[in-house]
Amino acid sequence: MTILIADDEERDRKWLKELLSSHLPECPSIVEVADGQAAIDSALKLRPKLVFLDIKMPKQSGIKAAEQILQQLPETGVIMLSNFADEVYVRQLWRIVPANGAFGYVLKNASNEQVVEAARAVLSGDCWVHPGIARVIQRTQNRATNLTAAEYEALACIALGLTDHAIAKRLYLTEKAVQSRLKSLYSKLGIPGRTEAHDTDFNQRCRSVCLATRRGLINQSELEDWESKLLETKSGGLAQ
Amino acid sequence: MTILIADDEERDRKWLKELLSSHLPECPSIVEVADGQAAIDSALKLRPKLVFLDIKMPKQSGIKAAEQILQQLPETGVIMLSNFADEVYVRQLWRIVPANGAFGYVLKNASNEQVVEAARAVLSGDCWVHPGIARVIQRTQNRATNLTAAEYEALACIALGLTDHAIAKRLYLTEKAVQSRLKSLYSKLGIPGRTEAHDTDFNQRCRSVCLATRRGLINQSELEDWESKLLETKSGGLAQ
DNA sequence: ATGGCAATTGGGGTTTACCCTGGGGAATTG
DNA sequence: CAATTCCCCAGGGTAAACCCCAATTGCCAT
Predict the structure, then answer these.
(1) pLDDT tens-digit map of B7-52
(2) If you measure CA to C1', which residue is closest to nucleotide D20?
(3) How many CB atoms lie within 10 A of CB A231?
(4) Going by DSSP bridges, is the β-strand pair A77-82/A50-54 parallel, antiparallel, or unpaired?
């Protein structure tokens, strides 16, 4: 029974390896890799029972690595190891993990006990999510607050600073459609409109970016992905 | 010769303590504390030669702790230990450190060698900044890109999602004055205007928040400070 | 089929954000 | 003393963002 650890930080790898080898004697073989591609390769070769994946890694993100691994070996237990409680990642993970698969989500500031607990849970087929993420999972399933793919897309666009017109051009929509998406986005984020309360102090556009960032719906590295995705078709390129 | 370590993460403290005690035998006494207030208290009592300060800490931020400590004991060598390369913090540190003081700025993903190097440098009166921060320091001194306090204030406001009108109300300014600040902010961030290129795909307001975040000019915890500062006078409170 | 729901689109409006030009006061610098 | 720089303020204009109402389409469920 082997365990795979994928993390680009040597310090974290060592910490985790030491922790696991001293608390899980049933797993004598622990392999370390330092990037996402190596994680996929090693997983397919070694067929480990459990894989720890850091989210922010070179070559391939931990999420993409998890997708590849679970596609080939759905039995694998996957534990994401993240610095952030970002809802984006939980959303993505949710779609990737098979219905009866075991996965874990632990933050890097977790205690040693929590990590061992998560490992034990996933090894025995259960799921383990960091307390504090539960709230996020709750939100991904609540109809009133869960964003649709379309709304999420619009959110990413305004967070990048695009105008309605530019968004419409890139997503092949009408400006009206864009505004419609934004309107429902605003209401789902709970941002007051201009008419109600009439003392509305908020620019909805910027406010939604602020709140979405605060809730972990979007973050910088995700936005950079979106940016390259949105600009690759436009040969002209954009300033800045 | 004692060293003080202030970090709320036990794991990081242990790593750092082990590292320093094995590489700096001339400092047998290493004291650990877990929050900003304790850091100030211990520093004033122990008068250490060198203080490691994490930026994100309970009670008091590492920056504020550094300010207090350096005010009382300007001879102290201070090394900030941060997760991020945020320009905000470098800006603030710049103002705090006395002209001939020794300080360091190392990112948490630094190698062991780099940390020891930084510690040695600061102990002997030199400064040490993480490679990759140098660029930020450069920007804080370049006239064309360095934001004034007024522009920075405006930036924080729009990042919070406030309208021109709301900003004016809170800062006791005219809307025109706010727009004037924003205009110079946009140009310093290098955001193209609507007139030039006439195919301007950007909403300057949102775009500036995007770029400022990417450059580390602003970040979530700083914004939350601003938010409480801006709302404490308004008894009415704001939605969300 | 019939009704409900979500997404897109349209018309026609108000408000806000941004553009340009320019002036005046305060503090800094040579 | 200039000269510069920064900051605040003004008027008048354009374009983008946001508002309400309504019609369409397609999907899904009873």
Answers:
(1) 998 888 988 898 888 888 887 789 999 999 999 999 999 999 999 9
(2) A195
(3) 15
(4) parallel
Q: Which nucleotides of D are covered by protein (CB under 7 A)?
A: 6-11, 15-20
Our CA-based measurement puts residue B203 at a distance from the nearest CA of chain A, in whole angstroms, of 5
Nucleotide nearest to A186 (CA to C1'): D18
Judge whether A139 and A146 are in contact, CB under 8 Å.
yes
For residues A82 and A100, the answer to whether their CB atoms sit within 8 Å is no
Smallest CA–C1' separation from B205, nucleotide: C17
Cβ <8 Å between B205 and A205: yes
Token pair in block for residue A139: 């939100």
Domains, chain A, ranges and CATH? Answer: 2-141 (3.40.50.2300), 149-231 (1.10.10)
Q: Which helix (H) or strand (E) holds B204?
A: helix B204-214
- CB-based burial, A138-149: b 16+ in 10 Å, e otherwise: ebeeeeeeebee
Contacts of A14 in chain B (CB under 8 A): none
Q: Please write the tens of the pLDDT for every residue from B64-77.
A: 898 888 888 888 88
